[in-house]
Hints:
Helix content: under 10%
Number of domains: 1
Low-confidence stretches: none
Number of helices: 0
Structural class: mainly beta
Distance between the termini: 28 Å
Order of helices and strands: EEEEEEEEEEEEEE
Largest sheet: 11 strands, mixed
Radius of gyration: 15 Å
Shape: globular
Amino acid sequence: MLSANEFTVGSIGQATPLSLVLPRHEHEETILIGKCLGGTAAFFLGDRERFKWFESSGNNHWHGLIIPNVRIEVDEASIFDPGRTEAKPGTVIRHGTQLIAKAKSLTASRDLDPIILEDGLTETSQEHAGFFRWQVVVGFDSNRRVLHAVSAG
């Protein structure tokens, strides 16, 4: 359950990075807002456009329940080396100071693009680590709730 101060309702163009947008009806999608080179990115987590993305800056077409300031938790048991195993759509990779999700562009058919979910993390001595399973959470400790779980493989 969410308290009233944990969400707003609006378009994805109003949502800031690391907001989860939940659908209100069957024509809307579950979307995680991240960053791309052009600004903000809408990363689909719902079934219809699963693991696809598009630039969402200023977009007033897609709407839903906006939950800002969510966190990403990775399942350490699903770790892989992106240098040895190909990343699949929906995987997350800790690369340097960033946590990125691999996504397919909604408008072009090309390689997977990185959607920045978190930036400014502590520098790591290793190049990168990937994860096939992760989840979107809100709150801390006894108030922590899993809003969406992802399995990319």
